[in-house]
Write a structure and sequence with these properties.
about 190 residues, eight-stranded antiparallel barrel, about 5% helix, about 55% strand
Length: about 190
């Protein structure tokens, strides 16, 4: 089978993060409108390539003052680094639907190697509308990717101390990316 290219449908793909807050709970945030693609040969998935871009300026935690602080130089510094990227090209198949995808994650201009545990959720054919025209059906596939990163590795190091030696924000951050990918139409020979 030939290599197929799938694009991340930005309206249905999101990245989320979760970090401990004040030593007692978790703060969750998300980035919608994630763009990217996956190139994969179903007969040889370990040679797949994936790229994703996140617009860090659009962070949302549900609390406007916190979102403003996260966009500041204390955290994401979106004025200087408005996008984050991930490029993965080392894939290891763990089971029929589970993979480890290792690649380069860039946040705040700092690039580190990160491994995501990826679960393939299946695929289906759906209608495809552009404007008022149904151009479908189109094949969609779902994936969920999870990793844990140390925010200090990317220069996201602001913190403050609370009572009894605790901190406001944990060092470790859980990252989850939900991907809905759409198969691009096969290119016609010209």
């Amino acid at each position: 089978m030939a290599t197929a290219r799938w694009f991340f449908e930005p309206g249905h793909t999101a990245a989320e993060f979760s970090a401990r807050h004040m030593m007692v709970t978790y703060v969750r945030g998300q980035f919608k409108n994630v763009h990217g693609f996956l190139e994969i040969d179903p007969d040889d998935p370990e040679k797949a390539q994936v790229e994703a871009t996140i617009d860090a300026t659009r962070v949302y935690t549900g609390q406007p003052d916190r979102d403003t602080h996260l966009r500041s130089a204390d955290f994401f510094d979106v004025e200087r680094f408005p996008t984050w990227t991930f490029t993965g090209s080392r894939i290891r198949q763990v089971s029929a639907n589970d993979f480890e995808v290792t690649g380069e994650l860039t946040i705040r201009g700092v690039t580190r190697s990160v491994t995501f545990d990826v679960t393939y959720l299946g695929q289906w054919d759906t209608p495809w509308w552009e404007g008022d025209r149904d151009l479908g059906p189109r094949r969609r596939a779902g994936f969920v990717a999870r990793s844990r990163i140390n925010r200090h590795d990317f220069g996201v190091s602001w913190n403050d101390v609370v009572d009894r030696g605790g901190v406001v924000v944990s060092d470790m951050v859980d990252v989850t990316v939900d991907v809905e990918a759409v198969l691009e139409p096969a290119a016609t020979a010209g």
